[in-house]
Amino acid sequence: MQATPFQFQSTAEIPTRKDRIVDWIDKKSRVRVTISDKRIFTGILLCVDCYKNLILADCFEYQAIDEKQEESKSMGLAMIPGEHIVSCWIETE
């Protein structure tokens, strides 16, 4: 099955990155954030500020110990500094 590209009628209809992030706020799906030191955080996105800092609820931190093992710890409510964020996406189940 081949996907057909979706054509927007005007540039006003194209969602911006900000619009996509705002759509993720307070949803029950989990967000996965990778930061510059290779740690990964997962949680429910509650808030984004003008500096791109993220607030995650029910947050877990994952850190690689070696190639085959990773350590995880529960963070609860966490703030991820925007200047360290490398990638951010919605987790699928």
Which descriptors would you attach to this protein?
93 residues; mainly beta; SH3 type barrels; 5-stranded antiparallel β-sheet; 1 helix; 5 strands; 45% strand; globular
Q: Quote the distance from N terminus to C terminus.
A: 22 Å
Q: How does the helix and strand content classify structurally?
A: mainly beta
What percentage of residues falls in helices of 4 or more residues?
under 10%
Q: Largest beta sheet: what is the strand line-up?
A: 4-3-2-1-5
Form type: globular
Oligomeric description of these chains: single chain
Order of helix and strand elements from N to C terminus? HEEEEE
CATH class: Mainly Beta
Q: Based on the structure given, which CATH architecture is correct?
A: Roll
- What is the count of distinct domains? 1
Q: Largest sheet, if any?
A: 5 strands, antiparallel
Task: List strands and helices in order, with pairings.
Layout: H1 17-24, E1 31-35, E2 40-48, E3 54-64, E4 70-80, E5 85-90
Antiparallel strand pairs: 1-2, 1-5, 2-3, 3-4
Question: How does this structure look, described?
Answer:
With 93 residues, this protein is mainly beta. It has one helix at residues 17-24; strands spanning 31-35, 40-48, 54-64, 70-80, 85-90. The chain has a single domain, classed as SH3 type barrels (Roll). It is built from one helix and five strands, in the order αβββββ. The protein has a five-stranded antiparallel beta sheet with strand order 4-3-2-1-5. β2 and β3 (54-64) form a beta hairpin. The longest helix has 8 residues, at 17-24. The protein starts with 16 loop residues before the first helix and ends with a strand.
